[in-house]
Known about the structure:
Elements: H1 11-19, H2 30-69, H3 72-90, H4 97-117, E1 120-123, E2 135-142, E3 151-156, E4 158-161, E5 164-167, E6 169-175
Parallel strand pairs: 2-6
Antiparallel strand pairs: 1-4, 3-6, 4-5
Helix pairs in contact: 3-4
Amino acid sequence: MAESEQRPATEADDAAFAEGSAPAAGAPGMADVEAAIRAATRDAHLRAAAEVDNIRKRAQRDIENAQRYALERFAGELLAVRDSLELAVANTGATDARSLAAGQQATLQLLQKAFEKFSIQQIRPEGAVFDPALHEAVMNQPTTAVPPGTITEVMQSGYQLNGRLLRPARVVVAKAPDA
Length: 179
């Protein structure tokens, strides 16, 4: 008998069910139904586990690729800066100071454009209040010209990437003169 065909229940099946005995021959037994349910459940569980494993592997592969190639675009932007520096070095003896300075300025502009493209901001805090989260004090300078704790000079610029500190600005901080 095909699975799609069902045999109508008979009086013998009803009587057997009432007495608690097995149904008539050819009728599916309770053990068969339970086994089919277990098999279907096991199959669904295996399929779900395989799908979760595939998603995990795909995510891991995506993370590895993102880490491996994260700097690719930034590195491509820096190639123009390197080319400009190489040209300047190659022409050092053949150019005057004015054109050398112009070339350095052009190279700095290329680097600044690359930084802007990748959200790298320069920290130049002259006149700001010292913030240890963004600045590194390299020395204190006694002065009455500005309030204590004010940055009087930037020794080295700091940088942030998308708001996250890459390097603190190295600064000189005003302090009250000794009395």
